[in-house]
Every structure is written in structure tokens, then in C-alpha cells.
Amino acid sequence: MSPPRTAGRSPASPPLGQGAGLLAADEPPPFEQVNASGRCSTLLVCDHACNRIPRSLANLGLQAEQRARHIAWDAGAAEVARGLGARLDATLVLGNWSRLVIDLNRSPASPESIPEISDNLRIPGNQGLTAADRARRLSALFEPYHGAIAALLQARAALPIQLIGIHSFTPRLGGQLRPWHIGIACGADRRLADPLIRALRCHRDLQVGDNRPYDIDHEIDYTLPTHARNRGIPHVMIEIRQDQLLSAADIDAWVVRLADAIRCASAVNTGFLPRSHGK
């Protein structure tokens, strides 16, 4: 049986996102929460799970092939995150809308929050936005997503907890090939990263990046610095190269590999043992 899902809505209030006029009544809510009662000490988040754009924004003026690019989402990340949530019995929060509408992993004050240009592509629907336009996206999508993560962490404040973000990255950026099959980003807090990297490097065929291809930049990234670093919670951002996630079999293999590595890494962190090992 699949873990129960909640759609980021309260029966006592209007659907999230609609109050700001961004989302239609028949469109998905800002985020999806899966397995809210999961017993694992890991909370999973997936900021860039989807490339969906609200109808009110007319696809931001982009063609379908442009919306399928890495600039719009982290392809394959949602499937990995769902698989990990099920295998570990972990709670998962996923963003339901494209990072081009508003990037859930950027400060609202950042120019990258609502990018006018991404990887040399001009985003027509993000040009010349007013403060009201930006505030509408913030209140409709960004604030509900981060409010859900904060509420989950607050509810578990007395329990062991670690926060893991699931992302994917394009094999080539700016003409440069990226050789890592997977990267673990952690910034300066290595409590979870070091044992996780060691566990992954037991697979001799894997090239594992240590803060490569990305580090956690506390001036740029938002989710883990805000929710984990500021609370003193062990955390990592897992980045998988997108050509490793092209089939269901590829994704399943990564789910198994990562679930085992997360269990090993969690066991090393005294005081952060999983409350349940899941399946």
C-alpha cells in the first residue's frame, strides 16, 4: 500500500495558492506531503520535483521542450524521493510547481528566486514583474511549502531528526562535462555527509562528489540553511546526475543504493538513529 498523501490543503480554509489568484481550483496545491506519520528519523524534501506551470502564467511563454530542460526542474528527483520515502518509511515534502515560477531553494530576495534568464534562456513570463507579481508567487507557492517543512520539524523537535534534500543535475553545464554520478553537498556540517559518502564509495563503480558539483551555499541556497542549519539539524543535499535516472530500473537501483547508505550514515550519527528502518 502506498503511503498516504496530503495535498497541502486544510479543509477549514480555501485551497492554498488560490487566495493569491495564481492557481485555479482544479490545479494541484503548492506542495505534496507523503507519509506524514512516517517513523524514520529522516525528513525528505524535494524542492524541484516538477516542471508544472500555473495556467494563469501561460507557460511563462516557453515551449514544451524548454519546459522539459533542467532549468525548469530536477528530472527524476521526485521518483527517487518517493522511492526513498517508501523504503525508509520517511515523510516526504515535494514542491508541485516549476522552479521557473519561483525557486523554492532560493531566498525571495535573490535574483535567482524568479529568474529572468536561466542557462542563457530568456524567460518571457518573468520579465518586468512588479513587486505585487512576485508577492503573489511567494504567498501562493513558496510560503506554503516552507511552512509545511517548518511545521514537520517543529512537531518532531524533541525527536532525533535529519533533513535530506533530493535533487538531480544535468550531465553538462556551460559546455563542461560533469563526471560525478552523484554528489553530496553539506557545507561545513559534515555529520551526515561523511558517513554517507563513505557508504556510497563502497560502490567502486561510482564517482561520488564531495561538495561537487555543488556545495551548499548559505548565501544562495535556502531550504537546508533555513530549516536545518539554523536548527542545528544534520543535513545533506543529494544530487544525482540526470542520465543516471532515465528508466524505472535506474531509479529503483538508486533508491536501493541510497536507502542502504542513508541507514548506514544514520547509524553512525549517535543520537540520530532511525526510529524505524522501514522495509
Characterise the protein shown here.
With 279 residues, this protein is of the alpha/beta class. The chain has a single domain (31-270), classed as Zn-dependent exopeptidases (Aminopeptidase). The chain has 6 helices and 12 strands. The protein has helices at residues 64-67, 77-88, 131-155, 193-200, 223-227, 248-268, and strands spanning 5-6, 31-34, 42-46, 91-95, 117-118, 121-122, 162-169, 172-173, 176-177, 182-185, 208-210, 235-241. The longest helix is centred in the middle third of the chain and has 25 residues, at 131-155. The two termini are 12 Å apart.
Mind sketching the topology for me?
Blueprint: E1 5-6, E2 31-34, E3 42-46, H1 64-67, H2 77-88, E4 91-95, E5 117-118, E6 121-122, H3 131-155, E7 162-169, E8 172-173, E9 176-177, E10 182-185, H4 193-200, E11 208-210, H5 223-227, E12 235-241, H6 248-268
Parallel strand pairs: 3-4, 3-7, 7-12, 10-11
Antiparallel strand pairs: 1-2, 2-4, 5-6, 8-9, 10-12
Helix pairs in contact: 2-6, 4-6
